[in-house]
Design a protein that fits this description.
alpha/beta; two-stranded antiparallel ribbon; about 40% helix
């Protein structure tokens, strides 16, 4: 039987995630030469080539991709085993690291942590403010146990684009539009997204928020002209107030917006989806499951 080395398989998976030996070494706190040596040893153990040169870099062979397909199932089962063992040894105690984008921290994470302090004081939650776009990268690297991200559409039961993760929709957050106070349509009786097709728009240049804005405007018949790019709501709302453009804002942000005119788009009803993601199999852990349940409860209270 082939000798499967879990440590070396993890290095191979990290290389597949990060793309280069240098990036994989950085993520694993190893030297590039050590990463290359471990993968050479793994290829020798398995009896198949795993890497092939591609210019100055290397790429995974078909055999390596075959190995990784089976490896993901192994890692998921190890996550379950680790979670069950932790539950057996520590009961309801444990530490859970949560990564969350800035607007989710006060409205979802803080209420969830407050509820857990009362119901399960032995569970310690460590919060890390992150960009929504880096949630899955942090999960894959093992830097967080549960991450909150954003999506234009809710994941479906058959959505297996990345088998490493389990994704659960926490909240469908309506999107309103923020206008400069002197915008010609600021006081219009009815406002539709199509009415703003010729306006200049402000939204993130990449990641979930770019996709969310474009997905909201496309059904209205236009692609929003991106005049400015920003990811922080303080910067976005300041630019809107200055008349530099218009922006879609989530309801959880719109409630605290000042200096701009916020209008509800009753006919278009655009939304964004707040997603809880975790490594597949990790939801079997009692501490992670409790934190996830608390986040679901906090989201339900908002709606």
């Amino acid at each position: 039987m082939t000798d499967w080395d879990i440590k070396k398989l993890r290095i191979l998976r990290t290389l597949a995630d990060r793309g280069t030996v240098t990036a994989a070494a950085e993520a694993l706190h190893m030297t590039p030469s050590a990463v290359s040596q471990q993968l050479t040893n793994l290829a020798r153990q398995l009896g198949v080539p795993l890497l092939e040169p591609q210019g100055r870099r290397v790429r995974l062979t078909d055999a390596a991709h075959l190995v990784l397909r089976h490896t993901e199932a192994v890692f998921a089962q190890l996550e379950r085993a680790d979670a069950e063992l932790t539950g057996y040894l520590a009961g309801e105690a444990g530490e859970v690291r949560v990564g969350a984008f800035s607007t989710a921290v006060p409205v979802l994470v803080v209420p969830a942590v407050a509820a857990l302090r009362l119901s399960h004081p032995g569970i310690e939650v460590r919060v890390r403010e992150t960009e929504a776009a880096e949630s899955y990268e942090l999960l894959a690297a093992g830097a967080v146990d549960l991450a909150l991200s954003l999506a234009a559409h809710a994941p479906t039961a058959g959505d297996d684009r990345d088998a490493r993760f389990t994704r659960i929709t926490l909240l469908e957050d309506p999107l309103d539009v923020a206008l400069p106070p002197d915008h010609p349509l600021a006081a219009a009786p009815v406002l539709r997204l199509a009415d703003l097709s010729a306006d200049r728009w402000i939204y993130g240049g990449s990641g979930p928020w770019s996709e969310i804005t474009r997905s909201a405007c496309e059904p209205a018949g236009f692609v929003p002209e991106q005049a400015h790019s920003a990811s922080g709501w303080t910067a976005i709302l300041a630019m809107v107030e200055a008349g530099m453009g218009v922006a879609l804002v989530p309801r959880m942000v719109a409630a605290r917006a000042s200096g701009v005119t916020v209008r509800t788009l009753t006919h278009d009803r655009p939304t964004r989806h707040v997603i809880a993601a975790l490594r597949r199999g990790a939801d079997a852990g009692p501490a992670v499951s409790r934190v996830l349940g608390a986040l679901v409860g906090a989201a339900a209270a908002l709606t």
